[in-house]
Design a protein that fits this description.
23% of the residues lie in helices and 31% in strands. It has 5 helices and 10 strands, in the order βαββαβββαβββααβ. It starts with a strand and ends with a strand.
Length: 244
């Protein structure tokens, strides 16, 4: 059996997240159906990250097993001809038998995009959180660097969601500004559901002056979702890369 790994980019606007759901259009279902059409048998498609509804990806990694002998170049070309234009296969390779796109991952990098300008733009509306008031980027950067390390991130999880453990490790975190765009970059070994978006929503309160840098760390230490800020919109979040 061949273990085929694909790098997938997608605009998540029109999809109910990655994972298959009854009567809903998802990235997994859409991609899996096209793969099965080409290789002519059913598969189980694994993904490195289960992105939520409306979240985008530059570099989602997936894999599946097949005995089909199609050349990888033909596979990529065939899939891109069948897939809708908001999903694209950016690359393919034959992985080792023990490779698993989720369990083999060492870390994941997410980028959150904010358009910080008085007026929004119709050309970026699907991909940014528009905030019209000025944000203090240096303060946001200093604040988010404080989450690097191993912490209980219960304060930033999705409300009323249970996890085996809320402890996660953040390897790198920072905030940069380019023109009117602010980018929040977080790399971690794993994430709770809504964790990045809840961190960004709370971080925006720091940037506006409604919370201090110390307040942010107090919220983290409280382990209470009720103390944190709003959940940032899904449309600004991108899965940038998965490292193996």
């Amino acid at each position: 059996m061949r273990n085929i790994s694909l790098i997938v980019s997608y605009d998540g606007t029109n999809y109910h997240g990655w994972q298959c759901q009854p009567d809903l259009i998802t990235i997994q279902q859409t991609l899996q159906e096209r793969i099965e059409k080409i290789i002519n048998h059913r598969i189980k498609l694994f993904a490195g990250a289960r992105t939520d509804s409306g979240v985008h990806a530059y570099g989602q990694t997936v894999n599946y097993f097949t005995d089909n002998t199609i050349e990888l170049k033909r596979l990529v070309k065939g899939l891109n001809s069948l897939l809708p234009p908001d999903i694209r296969i950016m690359g393919a390779h034959e992985a080792s038998e023990d490779f698993h796109s989720r369990y083999s991952a060492k870390s994941k990098i997410y980028v959150y995009s904010i358009l910080n300008s008085v007026c929004s733009s119709p050309f970026y509306a699907r991909y940014v959180w528009h905030i019209s008031y000025a944000l203090n980027v240096p303060s946001m950067h200093r604040t988010i660097k404080g989450i690097t390390g191993i912490y209980d991130f219960s304060a930033f999880k999705k409300k009323d969601t249970l996890h085996k453990s809320p402890i996660r490790e953040i390897l790198k975190a920072g905030v940069t500004k380019r023109g009117d765009f602010i980018y929040v970059v977080i790399e971690g070994t794993g994430f709770l559901r809504y964790m990045v978006r809840n961190i960004v929503g709370t971080l925006a309160l720091v940037g506006s002056g409604k919370l201090t840098e110390n307040n942010f760390m107090e919220i983290l230490e409280s382990k209470d979702r009720e103390n944190a800020g709003p959940t940032a919109p899904a449309k600004g979040l991108f899965l940038r890369r998965i490292k193996y």
